[in-house]
Each structure stands twice: as structure tokens, then as C-alpha cells.
Amino acid sequence: MFRYTKLTALREVGFWALALVFLLPFYFLLMTSLKSDQEVFTTSAAAPPSSLDFGNFVEVLSARGNSNVLWGLFNSVIITAGSIAVLVLLGSLTGYVIARSTSRWSTTMYYLFLVAIVLPTQLGTVPLYIGARTLGLTGSVWGMIILYGGMLLPLAIFLYAGFFRGLGTEYEEAAAIDGASRTQIFFRVVLPLMSPATGTVAILAGLIVWNDFFTSLIFLGGSDNQTLPVTMYYYIGSLVSSWNKIFAIVIVSMIPILAFYLFAQKKFIQGFAGGLKG
Length: 278
Known about the structure:
Layout: H1 6-33, H2 37-42, H3 55-61, H4 69-100, H5 104-118, H6 125-134, H7 141-165, H8 170-177, H9 182-193, H10 195-211, H11 214-220, H12 228-239, H13 243-274
Helix pairs in contact: 1-13, 3-13, 4-7, 4-10, 4-12, 5-7, 7-10, 8-9, 10-13, 12-13
């Protein structure tokens, strides 16, 4: 039977204090974004604004040209969602084949993908750019989805293969006895059991793609399809010291990925707790 002791109370107080420490920067971020230009320089960062002023957010979201935040946000959502879909589909299929194959080549391929994870992708920037420009993929949202899919596919395959190797074949054998094809077995039986792996791939890939600045700047810079990090770069460069507007655009960029992270994390926990039981 659980007993609430003094030690338990101390642990709770410690965790609450630690949570407040981690949330403190977000508090400063929010308070500053709601202040007017005058209050930013006349009040401390910890002081709340005298009145809630959402004008900074309106100004940020109404910017045009290279600083069009809404368009950059839309492009980031499309590229991130498309990249995750490609990685989940191709990564799960390839990882399943590698994990279920008994030939020697599957082990070799598994370690080759592991090596591809370790190698920095920046080493291939020049040949990647030349190839993408030759194929007409630079400055294109679909080109970025293909590019991110190729760059992060080794990570997705590595994660899926590891999960598949720990999954027994009993469900697959039972489905095969019932007359299911290999395609039906994979999509209706195996893949739903892999919700922990899918959640992990979605979270990691989503965070990497959403926050990536270097690749987007190289392949999308100067085009009409810039992602949010590149748009923020141009917008913040024109503001110099308008910290209330800079913090406002940072909050705008955080909201979608935080919402996605909370959703994917919930699905991950649900899949981890009940996926193998279902």
C-alpha cells in the first residue's frame, strides 16, 4: 500500500521547483512578447505587461515578402508532415524486411544504415545541392520532403528494425493461417503494433525537420517556399533590437511543434503501454 511520507513530499516539492526553473525562460518569453516597445526598455523582463497587447503578434503575422511568417509556417507544416509520412512508410517497410530476413545481407545493411546515422549530413551538402538543382528540386517543398526523407531514412530504419527484432512472430503467423497476404499482415497486424516506434520516429524526425535552418537556407533560400526558421532569420535580421516582436515570432514558431510533440508523446505512451496487448 502506498504511503505518503515526508520523503515523498520533499520529492514533489523538488520536482515542482525544477519544473518552475525550466518554465522560467518561457515566462520571460511570453511576458516580453506582450509588452509594448516602450515597456520592453523601461521594465524588467520578469515584470508582467501593464496591459495585454497582442499587437506584436498581429504585426508579426501580417508581415509580407521574405518575412511572411504565415507562409513560412504553412511550408514548414507541409514539409514536416510530408517528411514524417515518407519516413514512417519507407522506414517501417525497410526495417521490417531487414529484421525478418535471415540472410547475411540484412545484417550488413543494418550496420550500413547505422554508419549513415553517424556520418554528418553536412558532408554531402555540395553533391546533394548539385543533384537537387539538376533535378529541379531546389526551391521546392516536394524537393525538401524528398531530401529530408533521404537524410533521415537511416535513422527511421534503425529504429524500426530494432523494434521489429524485439517483436515476436506469433501475430504474423496467426494472420497468415487465417489467409492474410504479406501486405495485409504488415499494414493490419505488424504496423499497428509498432506504435512506439512510429511515435519515436515521428517525434525525432518532426523536431529535426521543423527546427532545421541550415538545409532549408541552402535549398530554399531566396525562393517563395521558405520554411519558418529561414523566415525568422530574415525577419529578425530586420528588427535588430525589437525584442517584443522577436519573442512573438519565437512563440508563433513554438506552438505547432509543441502541440505536435504533446500529441505524438501521448500516442507513444499509449502504444508503448497497450500496443503489444492489442
